[in-house]
Each structure stands twice: as C-alpha cells, then as structure tokens.
Task: structure prediction
Amino acid sequence: MRSLNPVIARILIAAALISSVGACKEKEEFNSVYELDPFNAVPSSYGKNKEKTDEQYISILYSNLFQTAISSKKLSEMVDAIYSVGDKEVAHELIVAKFMAEPNLKLPSNAEMRNNTDQFLEEAYKRFFVRNISEAEREWFKNFIKNNPEVTVEFVYTAFALSNEYQFY
Result:
C-alpha cells in the first residue's frame, strides 16, 4: 500500500479542519416580514345556520323576484303546494318556475346583465344572499356569463333561489 505524500496529507487534513469549522456555524435566522393584510378564511355563507321555514322561503323569494310582499292567500296556497309535493327541493323548483313565468316579475334585462356584469352580480348577491360577493365568486360568474351566451337573468336568479345558501339565514 502506498502512502500519501506528507505535504498532500497535511493539505487534506487542513482542508478537512477548515471545512468542519465552517460546517459547525449556527444557522442564521431570517426574520422577513411580508406585511400581508389579515383576512378571515371562512366560507361566505358562514353563520347562516338557521333553515328558513317554508313561509319564510316563499315570502322572501317572492319579495326578491317581484319587489313587493306576497298576499297571505297566495302564501298559504304556496305552502300547501310544498306540503302536497312532499319533496321540498322539487316543490321549491316548481315554485321558482311558477314565479319565473309570471308577467309582473321584476328582473334586470339580459342586456343589463351582460353590459354591466359586476353591478348585476353585486345586486344579485345582496338581493338573494344579503351579503357582498367575494372576488372568487365574481370572477367565476363573470367568466361563466361571458363564456355561455345562452345564460339568462332567469337562469342566474333560479340558481340563486335554489342554492343551499339561500335556504338558510
């Protein structure tokens, strides 16, 4: 076995000692501050945990669609319709469809929805969900309306009226 040249051996030992001394340094800590604004990461519908009664659902829906209060006779007929169908979701779909077919419905025009989508969405969210629209919701709806020319105000309002969030307050 051949031995190392004593000079090379000394250089290797010195290099090992120097590198081991450098490796034992304590890590530097970084205390970077990014100054992000705090925000709540909860769903937009957070806190809506009380389900509307059939009377509340119909009354609020009627007010949202017609901008006036429903008569007690009509309310009673609609509640009876819900009880007669048995399936609450199907009954709600039938009621929304009936309301959408009535002539005194007060909806923005499709042109208004497409020409000023931001305002349309803000008003729809306040009308149906009693809250402001989030930026994620705004972007999704704007893209959906833009990319689907067959979407109408009636379609959007029907979706809001039948949504899970609208069932609660």
